[in-house]
Design a protein that fits this description.
This protein has 2 helices and 5 strands. The chain is an alpha/beta fold.
Amino acid sequence: MMTHSLTTSPLRGVFIDLEGVLHVETQMIEGADDVLQQLRKKGFILRFLTNTSTQSRAHLQQKLTQIGLNIELYEIINT
């Protein structure tokens, strides 16, 4: 099995799904904010994906901010 170290990885960015990975409904998944902070600290480019088509990216960002996730509007990719 191959494993990667975040400190020596050739990866520059990470795509992360929102619903069910970082939050469920209006609850942040425990530790999600810490993981994002660690990835950013190591210089990873983060993009957040959702197949939600009924909410704008601005609305999604506001919802995420309210539950404690610091995600910029340009980082959110929706359908």
